[in-house]
């Protein structure tokens, strides 16, 4: 078959709608997690790192840890609230 064929590579059958849905859900969850980590990283860095250098000071390290923990906790509270409303 040529490269314009409608069959997937390998000539196998197309995945079922359920399999496709699971793949989409997995990709969305991964994208959400990456976006969440990036947001927390930027916000906590801006809040906790006053003078960037080659290493973190003790107060900077504990600030980042507390900041990250608060974001995780807040996200959990919001998620539980949204899912119990449904």
Automatic annotation (TrEMBL):
Superkingdom: Eukaryota
Molecular function GO labels: metal ion binding
Domain Tim10-like stretches: 23-82
Main location: mitochondrion
Cell location: Mitochondrion inner membrane; Mitochondrion intermembrane space
Listed GO CC annotations: mitochondrial inner membrane; mitochondrial intermembrane space chaperone complex
Entry keyword set: Chaperone, Disulfide bond, Membrane, Metal-binding, Mitochondrion, Mitochondrion inner membrane, Protein transport, Translocation, Transport, Zinc
Pfam annotation, one family: zf-Tim10_DDP
InterPro entries, per database record: Tim10-like, Tim10-like_dom_sf
Regions annotated as coiled coil: none
Range of residues in the leader sequence: none
Membrane topology, record value: Peripheral membrane protein
Biological process terms in GO annotation: protein insertion into mitochondrial inner membrane; protein transport
Protein family: Belongs to the small Tim family.
Quaternary assembly: Heterohexamer; composed of 3 copies of TIM8 and 3 copies of TIM13, named soluble 70 kDa complex. Associates with the TIM22 complex, whose core is composed of TIM22.
Role description: Mitochondrial intermembrane chaperone that participates in the import and insertion of some multi-pass transmembrane proteins into the mitochondrial inner membrane. Also required for the transfer of beta-barrel precursors from the TOM complex to the sorting and assembly machinery (SAM complex) of the outer membrane. Acts as a chaperone-like protein that protects the hydrophobic precursors from aggregation and guide them through the mitochondrial intermembrane space.
The record's note on its domains: The twin CX3C motif contains 4 conserved Cys residues that form 2 disulfide bonds in the mitochondrial intermembrane space.
Protein's recorded name: Mitochondrial import inner membrane translocase subunit
Organism: Arabidopsis arenosa (Sand rock-cress)
Lineage: Eukaryota, Viridiplantae, Streptophyta, Embryophyta, Tracheophyta
């Amino acid at each position: 078959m040529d490269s314009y064929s409608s069959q997937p590579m390998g000539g196998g059958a197309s995945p079922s709608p359920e399999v496709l849905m699971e793949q989409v859900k997995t990709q969305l969850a991964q994208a959400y997690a990456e976006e969440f980590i990036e947001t927390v990283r930027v916000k906590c860095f801006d809040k906790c790192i006053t003078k960037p250098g080659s290493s973190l000071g003790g107060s900077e390290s504990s600030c980042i840890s507390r900041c990250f923990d608060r974001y995780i906790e807040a996200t959990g509270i919001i998620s539980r609230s949204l899912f119990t409303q449904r």
